[in-house]
Amino acid sequence: MDIKQRFGLKIKELRKLNGLSQEKLANLAEIDRTYLPTIEKGERNVSIEVVERLAKALKVKIADLFNE
Questions:
Q1: pTM for this one?
Q2: Which residue, 43, 54, 38, 34, is CA-closest to 3?
Q3: Which residue ranges form the domains of the chain, and what is each CATH number?
Q4: In terms of Cα–Cα distance, which of 1, 6, 14, 27 is closest to 61?
Q5: 30-38 contacts at long range (C-beta below 8 A, 24 or more positions apart)
Q6: Are 65 and 17 spatial neighbours (Cβ–Cβ below 8 Å)?
Q7: Quick one: which of 11, 16, 48, 58 has the most CB atoms within 10 Å?
Q8: Residue 59, phi-psi category: left (phi > 0), alpha (psi -120 to 50), beta (remainder)
Q9: What are 1-60's pLDDT values in tens digits?
Q10: Where are the alpha helices (DSSP H) in 1-68?
């Protein structure tokens, strides 16, 4: 499994732990709602800006998004 897939699974795990739908998380992170599913599937190489927005929306540190 590559880093994009591991990152996507971590986003999905944290989203579900927070009881958020993909649409709600996308809104909180200010990204397009159609973009988030592709991140969760490991299909996107996201920018550091998107990583930061997702961390803020999930109320975690950026490093937490990369911990297994």
A1: 0.92
A2: 43
A3: 3-60 (1.10.260.40)
A4: 14
A5: 36/11
A6: no
A7: 11
A8: left
A9: 899 999 999 999 999 999 999 999 999 999 999 999 999 999 999 999 999 999 999 999
A10: 3-17, 22-29, 35-40, 48-58
pLDDT value at 68 more than 80: no
Question: Which residue pairs from 46-50 have beta carbons closer than 8 angstroms and sit at least 24 positions apart in sequence?
Answer: 46/7
Instruction: Enter the tokens of residue 27.
Output: 């809104």
Question: Taking the CB of residue 11, how many other CB atoms lie within 10 A of it?
Answer: 24
Question: Whats the size of the chain, residue-wise?
Answer: 68
**Cβ(14)–Cβ(67) below 8 Å:** no
Quick one: which of 26, 34, 16 has its CA closest to 50? 26
Distances in Å between the Cα of 60 and the Cα atoms of 2, 34, 43, 65 are 22, 22, 22, 8
